[in-house]
Amino acid sequence: MAAPKKGRRPTGAQGRPGRALAIILIAMVALTAGMFLTKQTTPRLGIDLAGGTSITLKAKSEPGKPDAINETNMNTAVGIIDRRVNGLGVSEAEVQTQGRDHIIVNIPKGVNEQQAREQVGTTAQLYFRPVLAVADGAPAAPETKPSGSPTPSASGSGAPKAEGSGKPSAPATPSSSATSQGRALSEALKAPGTPTPSPSASESKKADDKATTPPATPAPSAPPVDPAVADLQAKFAALDCTKEDQRAAAGKGAKPEDPVLACGQRGTTWGKWVLGPAQVNGQDVKDAKGVIDQQRGQWIVTMQFTDKGADKFAKITGELATKQSPQNQFAIVLDGKVISDPSVSQALTGGNAEISGGFTQQSAQDLGNMLSYGALPLSFSEDSVTTVTAALGGEQLKAGLIAGAIGLLLVVIYLVVYYRGLAFIAIVSLMVSAVLTYTIMSLLGKGIGFALNLPAVCGAIVAIGITADSFIVYFERVRDEIREGRTLRPAVERAWPRARRTILVSDFVSFLAAAVLFIVTVGKVQGFAFTLGLTTLLDVVVVFLFTKPIMTLMARTKFFSSGHPWSGLDPKRLGAKPPLRRSRSTGPVPAPVDAKEA
Questions:
Q1: CA-atom Rg of the chain in angstroms
Q2: For the chain, is the Cβ count within 10 Å smaller at the N or the C terminus?
Q3: Neighbouring-strand partners of residue 280
Q4: CA–CA distance from 257 to each of 193, 195, 278 (Å)?
Q5: pLDDT of residue 223
Q6: Mean pLDDT by 10-residue block, N- to C-terminus, for the chain (598 residues)?
Q7: Which pLDDT belongs to residue 105?
Q8: Quick one: which H or E segment has residue 208?
Q9: Residue 156 CB: number of other CB atoms within 10 A?
Q10: β 379-388/52-60 pair status
């Protein structure tokens, strides 16, 4: 007799619940361990719960731009500041306009205040300018000579040295070296694409007087220097970059296409530069970030240019490579300050550049962050900096937690009264969801800057109902199977596919709503959306990896499988139908008898 064929395993097979429970247990242990290892045992609180700092910025009018302070530029500045401070947009720093020319920035407690203030107030206007002259930052004392023509300096100390080690002089009467410097500046300024500074009215009048008055004895070896160049040279010689007020005023109000004076650090001392028109600006930078240079062991900022910026950078470096020092250098100027002035020996065509200049890790990463998000369209000054207390937020949090506790208690009472023993599974599942939510929120505070505010707490409270709803859907499916006359173990497995589809559709709708809310809103509402989306994802994880496996294991116990009245699965109480059975014949059907045989 042939052995019967082994039947196919039914779709409602019980599977391996122990494996799923082990996965979620390992995840809980890992998250809890990570929370203690990072010493982030509590979620980071937002400014409304923990207090913080409120910074008021006032937009400054710039010469020649009377209409720069407008709604468009203010909104652009708000967006840039928000991206700089918030990073992923969930650290709960609030950035909003107030009136026509003010921006309010609320920074929660726990954020590096000084770092945030630098991110907020720095304009981050970046320019690449060719170097025309360079010297030490301190001005040279003017030479005092007796009447008569000055004697040329043998060492040529009147001209700034290429390495910046010499001290420029500002003689009362131009010396031959100063005249050479003026001619060098004049030639540099007259290079293609470099406009010559326009002389003032008084300088034009003096030039006209000199043109009508014949010179007494012109010196053929020292032709006169252009008045505008002489004025720029005089300002350069008199500039004292060791003084903060002069450093701030150097090049202020200059347009990108104009030559400017600028200050910057040269090692441990200050230096000063005459710079040509900007050839590349920050808008030509596609990406920037602070990295460690493994060869030199120092932090630098690497930049990747756009296609247009790469072409402009290759062109200017190719032109500078043909010149002598210091005019073969280009200065990287950030907010009017020279960060670096590397020399060029060949055209740089790779579309990449780097900024070095004694950066720390924090300063390099901050500069890369500012350059990546772009320059502010306006300049701002700090109008006020105040400390915000958390007293009001603490009272609101207390009231919110009380409301949440009352809601949770009502849910538990409903589950116990209606589902009885099944309430145990629901309550334990809620506890697992709470542990996962708490640990993840704590780790996200340090990982991506997530801060828990009042709307986020509301999102977590709403999630209690979403999670409980998933349990109810599954429990009711199991009860429906029992009402159809099935025993508990098959009912648990047959109910799962139908309940799973309903739970996934419901959670997908909730997550989609949270995602749309997060994208289209700003500020505190994003905290609500983020928390709602996170807890919705965790609901799927808990139901699949904990609630269903626990239900499978509980179905094997006598308390639940026997339909105890307090199990919540009593067939009599649920109005179960008697089991359906197929009719079977009592014996073999006799073969028909042939009439002839009869």
A1: 39
A2: N
A3: 128
A4: 9, 8, 6
A5: 55
A6: 47 66 91 87 76 82 72 83 63 74 78 65 76 82 44 32 32 40 54 48 47 52 65 85 82 79 83 88 83 86 87 88 86 82 82 78 77 74 76 70 83 86 89 91 80 82 84 89 85 90 92 89 78 91 91 87 81 69 50 49
A7: 83
A8: helix 201-212
A9: 15
A10: antiparallel
Report the helix count and the strand count for the chain, using DSSP H and E.
18, 13
DSSP element (H, E) containing 242: none
User: Order of strands across the sheet with 352-359?
Assistant: 285-293, 298-305, 352-359
How far apart (Å, rounded) are the C-alpha atoms in residues 542 and 548? Answer: 9
> 289-301 burial, b for 16+ CB within 10 Å, e for fewer?
bbeeeeeeeebbb
Please report, in angstroms and rounded to a whole number, the separation of the first and last CA atoms in the chain: 34
Sheet hosting strand 52-60, strand order edge to edge: 94-98, 102-108, 52-60, 379-388
Predicted local distance difference test score (pLDDT) of residue 412: 86
Separation CA 27–CA 24 (nearest Å): 5
DSSP code string of 98-130: ETTTEEEEEEETTS-HHHHHHHHH----EEEEE
**Residue 452 confidence (pLDDT):** 80
Residue 282 per-residue DSSP state: G
**Residue 88: both structure tokens together:** 């992923």
State the Cα torsion 213-215-220-222 to the nearest 10°.
-80
- Which residue carries 């994208």 as its tokens? 519
Tokens read off for 537: 């994802």
What SS3 class is residue 152? coil
Please give the DSSP secondary-structure letter assigned to residue 95.
E
CA distance 233 to 582: 109
Beta-carbon contacts of residue 254 (< 8 Å; ≥ 6 apart): 260
User: Taking Cα atoms as reference points, which of 143, 81, 126, 70 lies closest to residue 340?
Assistant: 126
DSSP-assigned letters across all residues of 529-573: HHHHHHHHHHHHHHIIIIIHHHHHHHTTSHHHHTT-TTTT--HHH
Task: Report the SS3 class of residue 354.
Answer: strand
Tokens of 340: 């670096």
Residue from 451, 450, 381 nearest 55 by CA: 381
pTM over 0.85: no
Q: What is the DSSP letter of 404?
A: H
CA angle 405, 389, 95 (to 5 degrees): 95
